[in-house]
Amino acid sequence: MRDALEVFLLTLSALFPMVDPLAGSPIFLEMTYGYAPAMRRALSWRVAFNSLALMIGSYFVGAHVLNFFGVSLPVVQVGGGIVVLSIGWGMLMEKEDVHAKADKGAQSESVFGRAFYPLTLPLTVGPGSISVAVTLGANATHRYGFHISIILAALVAMVIVAATVFLCYGFADGLARMLGKTGMTVIVRLSAFLLVCIGVQIVWNGLSALLSSVHIHTQ
User: Fold this and answer.
1) Is 12 helix (H, G, I), strand (E, B) or coil?
2) 145 vs 61, which has greater pLDDT?
3) In angstroms, rounded to a whole number, what is the distance separating the alpha carbons of residues 188 and 27?
4) How far apart are CA 196 and CA 94, in angstroms?
5) Cα–Cα dist 78/168, whole Å
6) pLDDT class of 66 with cuts at 50, 70, 90
7) What span, in angstroms and rounded, lies between the C-alpha atoms of 39 and 167?
8) pTM over cut 0.90
9) Burial of 81 (0-12, 13-18, 19+ CB in 10 A)
């Protein structure tokens, strides 16, 4: 029981700040501008479900998948960081009149095509979260083996993280009403800038790990 509690607390404390749905809610609101509240909540539910599936997959089979394709975690960080950087840069440079275009067709079912990319990956569960989940899963398997209590503890922690994603994204319009249009514009621009910084940091972490693995032979 003690081991299960440790796994639960470690998984929750490691994944929640990486997913960080509180910081992601203004970006989610910006990318779903013009959607009806009911549609936004439906979309946030799909993002939360996708996030849960991605965390579970990364935790339990992520290391095996990467090993099968011969891809290392630093490479995932570099590739994912570039994607995060590009999305953040696009939002930072976005003009205000884009919102007028976004209203058209916002009620179409095609909006749910964005639920996985980019709203789930990489904006919610990005390369940093995937790296943490893969590492946690590999460490838990190595240390505790396959025990039902350990597996359930990790699952409950990931369900809680996914639930916070739904709550923060699904009710992000309340934040917009509190801040007003100008306040939301400021928050979104700052969030976009932070997203660019996070992307650069993720790329740098991956590059640093790759460079440290290079051995230079001198004669």
Assistant:
1) helix
2) 61
3) 6
4) 14
5) 28
6) confident
7) 14
8) no
9) buried
